[in-house]
Specification:
The structure is a single chain. The protein has about 290 residues and is of the alpha/beta class. The chain has one domain. Strands 1-2-6-5 form a 4-stranded mixed sheet.
Length: about 290
């Protein structure tokens, strides 16, 4: 993946110098949603032999604010483009997503409100509760911020074969733009509608609704990738395969099979490996947001 032509976003809060905070287990306060949570849970469970259901059960990705969440404005922090290589990459992907989504929203007759991306180390506070490394990257609709501990990328490189250094860049971009996809869903009113509907659903229906939201975010990430590729021709051989491998490896069916030896589709929260791969590929071929409808 070549990203030299990508504009660097300055909508980044770099909280890494603040150091880790002490907090309870992520997800107990709810409200954040993301591909990163499922990936990092899968990595930890795989490495330590822990049943991921014990962790996944505490993370409800699509839900409204709880009584424990911080509802007030977050403290003001200096924003800008981080000078280090990892920070530059994140800023480049975010900047390119801002440009492409601004174009797409303009075509829809709307203005794109750019999200802010928070880089942190260990843990930090979000309007959805504490953000911790164990959650992986996630989007918090309550403050319209994406939270990312970049050490997650190191875990990604260590655990997935063929995903190291430059070969892993597009997979990392896919993870970031999936979270941007959740922001797009929020701006379009999709997340509030799903959250409202879920309050009256049983567990099976609630999980099914969540799967649709996650697969749409995969599709929206693919839509970004297709638009960006058409403009910059930034992809290199193997990039798409690496992203699809990542999508396949974090499907609910793959994680359940690895943890318990069998698959329970009704318990899916992010979709199967095949569904995630198909959603991303659908987005790559999409011409508009409507092609990624739930």
């Amino acid at each position: 993946m070549q990203y030299d032509d990508f504009r660097r976003s300055d909508n980044i809060e770099d909280r890494r110098a603040e150091g880790p905070m002490t907090a309870g287990f992520p997800g107990a306060s709810g409200g954040g949603i993301g591909i990163g949570s499922l990936i990092i849970v899968g990595l930890i469970s795989w490495a330590l032999g822990i049943d991921p259901r014990l962790i996944i059960g505490g993370i409800n990705m699509v839900q409204g604010p709880s009584s424990h969440q911080q509802q007030g404005p977050m403290p003001a922090r200096k924003t800008g483009t981080p000078p280090d290589q990892q920070g530059q990459f994140v800023a480049a992907v975010l900047g390119e997503s801002e440009d492409r989504w601004s174009d797409i929203f303009q075509q829809m007759g709307r203005n794109y409100v750019k999200p802010r991306l928070v880089i942190f180390s260990g843990a930090t506070q979000s309007a959805c509760g504490f953000a911790q490394s164990a959650m992986g990257p996630f989007y918090c609709p309550n403050d319209q911020r994406i939270y990312l501990d970049t050490s997650f990328f190191n875990d990604l490189e260590r655990k997935f074969r063929g995903c190291d250094g430059q070969a892993c860049r597009f997979s990392q971009a896919y993870v970031i733009t999936h979270e941007v996809g959740h922001h797009v869903q929020n701006l379009l009113g999709i997340l509030p509608r799903v959250q409202q509907a879920q309050r009256s659903m049983d567990d099976r229906s609630r999980n099914a609704a969540q799967v649709r939201v996650e697969l749409q975010a995969d599709c929206l990430a693919g839509l970004w990738a297709g638009r960006s590729q058409a403009k910059w021709k930034f992809m290199e051989p193997g990039d798409i395969e690496a992203a699809l491998q990542t999508a396949s490896a974090i499907g609910d069916d793959r994680l359940q099979k690895r943890a318990q030896g069998y698959v329970v589709p009704d318990a899916f929260t992010h979709g199967s490996s095949a569904q995630r791969m198909q959603a991303f590929q659908t987005g790559m071929r999409a011409t508009s947001v409507q092609d990624c409808q739930l």
